[in-house]
Amino acid sequence: MQYVKETLALTHPGALKALTAAVTFAEEMGVPQCIFIVDGSGETIASVRMDGAKYLSMRTALSKARTAASINAPTGTMSFEFGTSAGIASQGGVTPLPGGLPIRFGGRLAGAIGVGSGTGEQDFAVARAALAAIGADPL
């Protein structure tokens, strides 16, 4: 029986590179965003609230990142009822809103990104730009 497992962890230079790419993409779109990058356990590595981004989106962007890390999948796919119940049970730590993506390398979870303040598609586009900048698996 095996008692340990090998895990991946996104480094802070990787998180900062992803964050910079996300901000650049959001600026090019003209949509200021709140962006969180977390490790595999949902703890924040890097974050920013761009000038003009909705301040309440800080909370949703963090929840999107933590949800994506927790379920190792994009956010926005769970049913409204389940998402609402999970959000209440986790005191806002889980959200059904779109805009969160896991950060994977070779299929293995290394962290996640959550983006908020635009439409769901805009949030996902910014998150995908961050993943591409660090060579993470595309989603």
From TrEMBL:
Query: Could you say which residues form the signal peptide?
Result: none
Q: Which residues cross the membrane?
A: none
Gene3D superfamilies, per database record: Haem-degrading domain
Q: InterPro entries, per this entry?
A: GlcG_carb_metab_protein, PduO/GlcC-like, PduO/GlcC-like_sf
Q: What is this protein called?
A: Glcg protein
